[in-house]
């Protein structure tokens, strides 16, 4: 600082920046970090390599390292990584006994740590201590039976050692816990690797349905096996449709066609009507479709149990079997859940069906659409008219009558004539169908009478109904009946307006 004559200090003036515009070359934080990395400003030199020349130096080195590991463990015993590093270091020095001691101490701290058990067992397997490894796996699956990784590694070790019986025993212990699907498939694949098809079939049976002994009573020696099973509580393990299909395909793949068909039939019976699934019927139909000559001379009995009633269908031809399966499923599966089923049915009829079969498929699809429409709005009489025209052209009389009865059951909620105009034509068409198609005069007469009883004549009536009923009686040469109808019409309030006014 400069000094004045009076001895006071003078602060120098700060130079003012005239140009405050940003510099042309800007430096970013990323650039600073990159330059520091390139120049290796923060890298520390590696520690010098220590050469151990005698046993005393080696013992000192071990003591120093062990003291460091023990200090880290003493600071925080719950950090399992410190225990694992310590044990792995001892393992690298071939100090297996010390490494075991460290793992055991770590298990006392946290016996539910999965990584700790895995590292411990892997160390024993690396050092070829098979019995020690078995002991560790047994302890692990006893303490943590729901950890599938332990079971997988245990069975793999036994199989690699060639101990097939021991591996099967481990699998059996595992299956008692009813594990996930992949575990059952691993057991099945294990048996198939050793050509044990019968044992694999038994596992599939347990996989889908298993009888637990928890609910069993004490069974006498002379009691039948069937009664014994009836006394057991039925425990469902994995009863999904896909598992039944896998079981059936397993039988088919090994050439047991009859067994495969039986599995499909059991699956249909098991799920019934409440839990029916389209995938099951699609797989069943495809299975029957692929049999061809191998099963063309056989008769399949298709048995299902619904509400304590057994339905048995027998059909000798393979294509007829497929057709019946598709129709059976379409009649029972809700329409919005049967899209894939209907698609496969259409493809089947196009490949193997005749013209009549293809028309049946198209009619069935249109019936599904109309069913959805009338279910969404029962008072949509136009949809009922279209539906009735469809069933009249294709279905039998009982089916047509059933649809007519469903249609006329939807009475208009308001007693106003404009709401009843379309509805009355359902009755007219019903009566004409009974008279012209089925040629049943008695049922036609009943339809007309039921319609006239339903119409609220005190508020309004329809002259067309009265006239059609009278003309019907004239065609039946029942003049007294026609006169009675016209007499009843005269008793209707304002009948002259009815005859002269709009119908």
UniProtKB/TrEMBL annotation:
Pfam families: HAT, HAT_Syf1_CNRKL1_N. Its main location: nucleus. Residues 68-209, 368-488 form the Pre-mRNA-splicing factor Syf1-like N-terminal HAT-repeats domain. The keyword Nucleus applies. It is found in: Nucleus. Keywords: mRNA processing, mRNA splicing, Nucleus, Repeat, Spliceosome. It comes from the Eukaryota. SMART domains: HAT (SM00386). Belongs to the crooked-neck family. This is Crooked neck-like protein 1.
């Amino acid at each position: 600082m400069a000094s004045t004559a009076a001895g006071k200090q003078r602060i120098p003036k700060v130079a003012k920046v005239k140009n405050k515009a940003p510099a042309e070359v800007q430096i970013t934080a990323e650039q600073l970090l990159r330059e520091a990395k390139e120049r290796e400003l923060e890298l520390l030199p590696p520690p010098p390599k220590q050469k151990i020349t005698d046993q005393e130096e080696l013992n000192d080195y071990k003591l120093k390292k062990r003291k460091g590991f023990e200090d880290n463990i003493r600071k925080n015993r719950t950090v399992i990584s410190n225990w694992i590093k310590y044990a792995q270091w001892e393992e690298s020095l071939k100090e297996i006994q010390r490494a075991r001691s460290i793992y055991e101490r770590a298990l006392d701290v946290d016996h539910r740590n999965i990584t700790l058990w895995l590292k411990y067992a892997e160390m024993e397997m690396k050092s070829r201590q098979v019995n020690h490894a078995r002991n560790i796996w047994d302890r692990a699956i006893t303490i943590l039976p729901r950890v599938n990784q332990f079971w997988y590694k245990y069975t793999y070790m036994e199989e690699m050692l060639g101990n097939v019986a021991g591996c099967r025993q481990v699998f059996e212990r595992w299956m008692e816990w009813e594990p996930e699907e992949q575990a059952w498939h691993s057991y099945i694949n294990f048996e198939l690797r050793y050509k044990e098809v019968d044992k694999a079939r038994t596992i599939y049976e347990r996989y889908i349905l298993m009888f637990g002994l928890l609910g069993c009573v004490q069974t006498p020696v002379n009691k039948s096996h069937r009664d014994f099973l009836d006394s057991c509580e039925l425990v469902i393990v994995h009863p999904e449709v896909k598992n039944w299909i896998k079981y059936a395909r397993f039988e088919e793949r090994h050439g047991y066609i009859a067994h495969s068909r039986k599995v499909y039939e059991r699956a249909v019976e098991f799920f019934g009507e409440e839990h029916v699934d389209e995938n099951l019927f699609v797989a069943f139909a495809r299975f029957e479709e692929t049999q061809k000559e191998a099963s063309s001379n056989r008769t399949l009995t298709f048995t299902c149990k619904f509400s304590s009633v057994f339905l048995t269908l027998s059909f000798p031809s393979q294509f007829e079997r497929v057709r019946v399966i598709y129709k059976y499923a379409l009649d029972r599966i809700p329409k919005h859940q049967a899209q894939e089923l209907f698609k496969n049915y259409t493809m089947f009829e196009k490949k193997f069906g005749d013209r009549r079969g293809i028309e049946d498929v198209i009619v069935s699809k249109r019936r599904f659409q109309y069913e959805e429409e009338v279910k969404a709005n029962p008072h949509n009489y136009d949809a009922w008219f279209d539906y009735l025209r469809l069933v009249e052209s294709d279905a039998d009389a009982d089916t047509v009558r059933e649809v007519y009865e469903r249609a006329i059951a939807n009475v208009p909620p308001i007693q106003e004539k404009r709401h009843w105009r379309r509805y009355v034509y359902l009755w007219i068409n019903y009566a004409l169908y009974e008279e012209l198609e089925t040629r049943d005069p008695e049922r036609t007469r009943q339809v007309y009478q039921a319609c006239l009883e339903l119409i609220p004549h005190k508020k309004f009536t329809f002259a067309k109904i009265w006239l059609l009923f009278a003309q019907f009686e004239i065609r039946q040469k029942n003049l007294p009946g026609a006169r009675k109808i016209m007499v009843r019409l005269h008793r209707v309030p304002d009948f002259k307006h009815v005859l002269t006014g709009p119908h």
